[in-house]
Amino acid sequence: MGKNNVVVSKCDSYDNDQLKSSVTDIFKKMDNIENLIKPNSTVVIKPNLLLGKSPDQVVTTHPDLIQQVIDRLKKFECKIVIGDSPGGPFNESRLKRIYKKTGLFKLSENENVSLNYNTSSTKISFEEGFLVKSFEVSDFILNADLIINMSKLKTHSFMKYTGSVKNLFGTIPGMKKAEYHLRMPEAENFALMLVDLARYITPQINIMDAVIGMEGAGPSAGEKRKFGYIMASTSCFSLDIAGAYLFNIDLEDIPTIKQAKKKGLVGNIEEIKLYGDKLVPAENTLTPEINESDTRNVNNLPSFLANIVNKLLKPRPVFNKEQCVKCGDCAANCPAEAIELDDYPKVDLNECIRCFCCQELCSYEAVGIKKPILGKLFFK
Ligand code: SF4
Ligand code: SF4
User: Fold this and answer.
1) What is the pTM of this model?
2) Max Cα separation, the chain?
3) Where in the chain are the domains?
4) Which of 143, 200, 211, 236 has the fewest beta carbons under 10 Å from its own?
5) How far does the centroid of ligand 1 lie from the alpha carbon of residue 364, in Å?
6) Would you state the CATH architecture of domain 5-276?
């Protein structure tokens, strides 16, 4: 199967019969799958496990879809490991909590597959990187013979969209992710880093859970949105083009796709060969209001001007006191250490790099993003 090919299968719900028929169809149409999966090899399934949320909250890849993929893998007699480095600290007790909430703990017991608890990592060099020449990567990923990247179709406040390429940020261990945000606060560079990471990891199989995804304030506080598809490709870049087409977002508005296109890694939807069911774009989808230009670095301005821009013009995280339980996760995970728990969270807007990790990682949907009207004019 060529790298420009994407298999599309309609799937209206997480009903097991429907999932089974879609996943069987996908495995059949990805004709080289038999050559990719070797007996006794270690196959790592890398879902999106951003937070410990139940499957019906649509933040994470649905466990019933993962179960169908495991069923198809069994005939290959490979060793199957499910793992991700979710947002926040990467340790055994947190992983266990997340596996339980997302339905994977039960799945691993029923299917007799392993869940990853290895939190070690290794620094690898990647001279071919366009921007980043080395990465700290989790060892459970480096130990895999084959990676199945199972993303969830959602919006993302910082990257506009999270699909297959963005899902691979979860190969970076825990709090190390914060360093990448700090080093690359502008969306353009952060996206190019993600493109480099995806080129390094190069998952052999990419499957997207686009049955029910998320629109609006994704990746954790948005609204459920039914798309009704499962899609797969050997290229995470091609799969994202199909995902963005389905979501109906302009490709140029998605920083990872824009960078991948610029570097010649992928083309437009017309250059993608779609197999299987007809892919019909969703209508009137809600995307985050934040644009690439909102994250522009203003630190090259004189400091008094930079302060004005940071305080009055840039979009900023806002905290809803009625929903906030003062757990402190936002402060603990802020890459810039810009949040103080002064009873309720309070942000130093001059330190804030507008990564919106606080919004992404708040389990209580207590963080919103406010975009000043003046900012809309300034960051055109
Ligand atoms: S905003 Fe969310 S993450 Fe931060 S303290 Fe409140 S509940 Fe916790
Ligand atoms: S306050 Fe929120 S948006 Fe600002 S740097 Fe911290 S995590 Fe990122």
Assistant:
1) 0.94
2) 65
3) 5-276, 292-378
4) 143
5) 7
6) 3-Layer(aba) Sandwich (3.40)
Asked if 5-276 and 292-378 have one fold, the answer is no
The amino acid at 238: S
What are the start-end ranges of the H helices in the chain? 16-29, 33-36, 63-73, 92-101, 104-111, 139-142, 164-167, 176-183, 187-201, 236-247, 255-262, 303-308, 329-333, 357-361, 373-378
Alpha carbon separation from 131 to 76, 167, 190, 197, 235 (Å, rounded): 38, 19, 9, 10, 20
Q: 93: exposed, middle or buried (C-beta count within 10 Å: 0-12, 13-18, 19+)? A: exposed
Output the pLDDT for position 378: 58
Cβ density class 236-246: b for 16+ within 10 Å, e for less: bbbbbbbbbbb
CATH of 292-378, one of 3.50.50.60, 3.30.70.20, 2.40.40.20, 3.20.20.70: 3.30.70.20
DSSP conformational letter for 271: G
Give the Cα separation of 320 and 247 in Å (integer). Answer: 29
Report residue 335 as tokens. Answer: 């890459």
Choose which residue among 320, 329, 361 to substitute to test ligand 1 binding: the one with the highest number of ligand atoms within 8 A of its C-beta: 329
CB of 51 within 6 A of ligand 1: the answer is no
Q: What is the mean pLDDT of each run of 10 residues along the chain (380 residues)?
A: 90 98 96 87 98 97 98 96 94 97 98 97 98 98 98 96 98 95 94 98 98 96 97 98 97 97 96 97 92 74 72 87 96 95 91 93 94 64
Which positions ≥6 away from 30 have C-beta within 8 Å?
Answer: 1, 7, 205, 232, 234
Distance in Å, CA 116 to ligand 1 centroid: 27
Q: Are 368 and 320 in contact (CB under 8 A)?
A: yes
Task: Say how far apart CA 358 and CA 343 lie, in whole Å.
Answer: 16
Element (H, E) at 226: strand 223-233
Q: What's residue 24's pLDDT? A: 96
What ligand has the least distance to the C-alpha of 185?
Answer: 2
C-alpha span between 276 and 30 (Å, rounded): 11
Which residue bears the tokens 């994704």? 218
